[in-house]
Amino acid sequence: MSIAFLGLGAMGVGIAENLLKAGHEVTVWNRSPGRDGHIVSAGAASARSPLEAASDASVAFTMLSDDAAFESVLGGDKGLLQGLPSNAIHVSMSTIAVSTADRAAAAHKAHGQRFVSCPVFGRPDAAAAAKLYVLAAGAAADIDEVEPLLTAIGQRTFRIGDTPSQANLVKLCGNFTIMAAVEAMAEGMALAQKGGVGKALLHEVLTGTLFDAPIYRNYGRILVEEAYTPAGFKAPLGLKDMRLAGEAAETYRVPMPLLSLVRDQLIQTIAREGEEIDWSGIGKTVAGNAGL
Amino acid sequence: MSIAFLGLGAMGVGIAENLLKAGHEVTVWNRSPGRDGHIVSAGAASARSPLEAASDASVAFTMLSDDAAFESVLGGDKGLLQGLPSNAIHVSMSTIAVSTADRAAAAHKAHGQRFVSCPVFGRPDAAAAAKLYVLAAGAAADIDEVEPLLTAIGQRTFRIGDTPSQANLVKLCGNFTIMAAVEAMAEGMALAQKGGVGKALLHEVLTGTLFDAPIYRNYGRILVEEAYTPAGFKAPLGLKDMRLAGEAAETYRVPMPLLSLVRDQLIQTIAREGEEIDWSGIGKTVAGNAGL
Amino acid sequence: MSIAFLGLGAMGVGIAENLLKAGHEVTVWNRSPGRDGHIVSAGAASARSPLEAASDASVAFTMLSDDAAFESVLGGDKGLLQGLPSNAIHVSMSTIAVSTADRAAAAHKAHGQRFVSCPVFGRPDAAAAAKLYVLAAGAAADIDEVEPLLTAIGQRTFRIGDTPSQANLVKLCGNFTIMAAVEAMAEGMALAQKGGVGKALLHEVLTGTLFDAPIYRNYGRILVEEAYTPAGFKAPLGLKDMRLAGEAAETYRVPMPLLSLVRDQLIQTIAREGEEIDWSGIGKTVAGNAGL
Amino acid sequence: MSIAFLGLGAMGVGIAENLLKAGHEVTVWNRSPGRDGHIVSAGAASARSPLEAASDASVAFTMLSDDAAFESVLGGDKGLLQGLPSNAIHVSMSTIAVSTADRAAAAHKAHGQRFVSCPVFGRPDAAAAAKLYVLAAGAAADIDEVEPLLTAIGQRTFRIGDTPSQANLVKLCGNFTIMAAVEAMAEGMALAQKGGVGKALLHEVLTGTLFDAPIYRNYGRILVEEAYTPAGFKAPLGLKDMRLAGEAAETYRVPMPLLSLVRDQLIQTIAREGEEIDWSGIGKTVAGNAGL
What we know:
Four copies of one chain form a homotetramer.
Chain A: E1 2-6, H1 10-21, E2 25-29, H2 37-41, E3 45-46, H3 50-54, E4 59-62, H4 67-74, H5 80-83, E5 89-92, H6 98-110, E6 114-117, E7 120-121, H7 124-128, E8 132-137, H8 140-153, E9 154-161, H9 165-194, H10 199-208, H11 214-225, H12 235-252, H13 257-273, H14 282-289
Parallel strand pairs in A: 1-2, 1-4, 2-3, 4-5, 5-6, 8-9
Antiparallel strand pairs in A: 7-8
């Protein structure tokens, strides 16, 4: 299959390479040049604009950092909307707003193109190892068509619904649930510590009993070791996701006090620690607020 | 070993029977009479007061519903403090306040007795199956001495520290972390649902990816099925635990906004749904607050 | 002075009439036609577009309902930016985002025009009576120039700063402080009521002692009488203001947990009671959450 | 009238002197000796125990710092319950728990005595100037009987209800409302400041428009000047009052998220700043959390 791949960040590179390995023709493009050396030497073509990359594609993937990047790739004279052939499918993997996904779906429809939203769970190492979890939403027939591609890049695909933006909503719910778990562990650890119980021990108890899940093991370890820099996922990106979840919550009229709480913790963390700290750095805020 | 067992509620019965099965002499007592039929026919002796039950014991277990019950068993003319022989060990499994455990430790010391705090994680079925997780705190030598008994009733024992009340603190942290996870799932489900994504699907995504832990599977299922009654653990008991955690947080000067949030959610749940609903009924509150 | 006045809602009508009474030539425009009958018969001219209204003006006032309305009046072929003469002053009285005011300031500068932001405190009756409080920000010389006009419409002008959007920030702070006071009264009243003390009595005590201010008297009375409809200021507009305050808080990195709380209360109120309720309807939510 | 006055702290001294000035026979007692020099030289008698002070009194006032002090004055061999003559009235002015007031009412009834709860609003200077606001609850006939005494010490008496503890509930509502106002101002000031608007200016705008009340003027000035020490009312005392309000809220099943918020802010303030800071020191916490 002829594939365009737009966005060669830490996540995109691994995904694009897996599509290449699966035997597809892949044409790549990235906003900042010089990111495509390795994948081009492995057999991918390189394009100078989203339009050029997509002009012969039957499927175009995007993996971009935020809504602004997504919209600039989509629009403009050299954008994906102009370049993508009629009836071709845009598979969007970015974590973007529900409303942005809705607008993209409408724009593609107006251009006679198709749109499937497929955000993922997983870090760059999972992307490289084709171990992502994929959340797919859009017309069932469209997802059927790209399913072999999704299988090539992930370990499991969840079908979320007929409206593309529903996958984005679920992705935001997931990231919110992570932040909530971090906040809960951080508060418990601060209490334990001031009561004379080491936080490593509390972590061992929680993950050794009822909370034996990757999130508690991995983020708990970060909290115990206070390994907040270098960031795996920076606090401002986490804050962006909480804001997007909050916008959806306001649109759908859902009060989410715990979402509001972790958003405020992220803001405090950035205000005090700067923009480079990991989003789990709310643990530092929680401890500091307790005088630790 | 000669053991007194005080408190034959749903949890206590299973634990006492496992001590009996392990070959110990067990004398039981319960506040409300008529709960000891089965265990007595299995070989336990029955006593008419804590004092009588403990008078020949080298170890006395207590498994009581709250601080008031605990203190009434401990004190008074026929209480455990009067009955327990010098140098014998009181193993307290109740979920009580840190301050109550501290007072009990001091009282036993003044009576020449020893005190070990061993609250547990696990429901009645885990108690019956000897699958509890035990949190043990107190003098190391004292825990060593009762360790064979703890092994007979649980699948794993965590050593928490030298001060008995530290085990209670960790137990309260655990229950708080459960409530936090329920609140997070409930908010996510309300958002998903109002965005057109069924909550069963969100549950499948979360537990199928990053949150593959018993708490998310089991409580998530309750939220999906809205199976809030009959209660496995009633909301007022959950509120009691959050209050005890909050008292410790105030004593140790630890701000815990997420603890405050789930406490308020429990109060609202009880205010609107009554005292019989499960503590996971905060999910009903979250949904109702969103107009669902 | 030759004045354009854009936006003849409940607030705008009163303000425009006061400018007319002060002896100025006023040309009015409103998006939906038919709102200018009274003021035109009183001597104002009527225009068919912002451009037309502003083309001879030395000062143009805008009083619009939200950011979208503001931006559509500003932009476009027939918009204010096109119509306002060089060096003329745009006095914006709308409650809009800090970022929107910043963009407007830049756009006017690029067009060789001047921009002063003057949001107000006060209801339509205060607008009609020229009793508004005016928050003015922008270049000092520009404010000096329009000061006689501000005096004609309000009882007092506060000078906020050199950057126009600072006045918008202060206006949002004011509306937030109102909501916070309503939430506090509502919680106190719910507690009093369930403890057997009527909420009218609590209101009398608070306003008769430490809280003898218009906000507590007037909004407290609404809470006591549960007079949430018809709305004086609808909950969705209040939610909009809290969102704008929240956006500024995120931009400036200021955690505001109380702002987050009242925003969630507004969302719950709208989710359960609909879009027509007054923003003080959070009092109904607080009472309902307590089972009242 | 023959009056016992128990508790010569900063508040009690002023109140007792006003009762003396009004022509009554006053016998005073204080836990720590040496506080009664001035009032005794002004004509009061001095007693060595609550019992002794009250033995000839028709009315006994108490003004004590917390529940523990209150209960120790009431109970014991030399306590007020033993000393107060049959049918005499105990007027309690302390800010104590609703449940403590309920227990005191029951105890006095059992001793054939009467109990009226009369907590006050006002600082020591208001106590000295007989300008307190008095909240009176209890049997109407009992309040009628002590009304001349209340008039001698305050500027206004509010009748709260027939159950003495209702006055304590209203007092706690009042202190909560103060903390809520301080939190709101502090958040607004942090936002204004990071947006380039001085907090003194925001304070001037708020108190010059909608929030022209003593609480906003006086506490706002403390926030502007950051005059948190020496404390007028220490943070741990404020935290105690929030805890008592929270206990009542839990008992009556009233979720109070804003109360929870200010309680957590007080805990953070004490954790970071120590026990000596004023309760308005939450303003320092709010600013610090924003990186100011």
